[in-house]
Amino acid sequence: xxxxxxxxxxxxxxxxxxxxxxxxxxxxxxxxxxxxxxxxxxxxxxxxxxxxxxxxxxxxxxxxxxxxxxxxxxxxxxxxxxxxxxxxxxxxxxxxxxxxxxxxxxxxxxxxxxxxxxxxxxxxxxxxxxxxxxxxxxxxxxxxxxxxxxxxxxxxxxxxxxxxxxxxxxxxxxxxxxxxxxxxxxxxxxxxxxxxxxxxxxxxxxxxxxxxxxxxxxxxxxxxxxxxxxxxxxxxxxxxxxxxxxxxxxxxxxxxxxxxxxxxxxxxxxxxxxxxxxxxxxxxxxxxxxxxxxxxxxxxxxxxxxxxxxxxxxxxxxxxxxxxxxxxxxxxxxxxxxxxxxxxxxxxxxxxxxxxxxxxxxxxxxxxxxxxxxxxxxxxxxxxxxxxxxx
Length: 391
Fold this sequence. Notes:
Layout: H1 6-16, E1 21-25, E2 41-42, E3 45-46, H2 47-51, E4 56-61, H3 66-77, E5 81-84, H4 90-93, H5 98-104, E6 109-114, H6 129-136, H7 156-179, E7 184-188, H8 189-195, H9 198-207, E8 225-228, E9 234-237, H10 242-251, H11 256-259, H12 266-271, H13 273-284, H14 289-298, E10 303-305, H15 309-314, H16 316-320, E11 324-328, E12 335-339, H17 361-367, H18 373-381, E13 385-386
Parallel strand pairs: 1-4, 5-6, 6-7
Antiparallel strand pairs: 2-3, 4-13, 8-9, 9-10, 11-12
């Protein structure tokens, strides 16, 4: 029972882990079904919606009615877990608070995704991705040195929240399975971003020094940065440790740097990083990024040409790892590419195309809740549920 990005991403992850996932939508559908960028749609489905809703069933309910809530409770009775992304004061109003749900199914695992905190004055505060990035400090360490704060290029707050929600849900299900007592886990988008500060936060606790944006350059390893090449593209290199450093110097035909007192040891390289950057920038500018990519890869130096999104998705590794899949539309002959499953099980099979709004309503109510067709027909007529399909 989530919408737009973070929660649906969690649901898709659970499906990729092997769960049967039922997406419960309002009669009008998940808002992301209507969100498109520059007309990026496929047979009326927005790219936004398609990106995080594969491998699910969809049932559309009017939860503002007692009958709609009763249907949801019947689903809860037969489920292992429920995840939802309502504001903290909403679950009680809809009969989705832990006390009510565990009264229906004592073994149910409950995963709740919130923005900031579950108590006023924060419980009803809007918590969009950019706001979470701002509050969490991540924007202050992203971007160029002395530049303006920069948001991470994708919705890291929403997506990381989805990752934590999926993981928390699995943990809650395991605990419920072992103890027979339903567990509840709450995930805050802000908590997740603060948790991801990891060593930047710990270094601050230890030293009191506030981390700052450093561009692509690593703050305590040198060289670990990006460098412009002859063709205008960039190469990223990070020869960490003395062995890689020496191999790197030979690979770029600068063996004299190995014995140079300024660069001989890790700490001295950090202390003289600007001088080292000037030397390496001049060297890398002499050849194309393709030349450096091939040369350094063959020498097994930690390096890579910086890809744009198209190049990243078209690189051989994306296909070797089956991270790009082609799926045919359920009602049309043409197909579209999707990102693949990052969880590599021997039994993996491609996820199905994202569901039509309410496309599985009848099947779910018959198979899971054991409703009769006549009852389902009446619910459709009374607009308590919606049975949809792809045109």
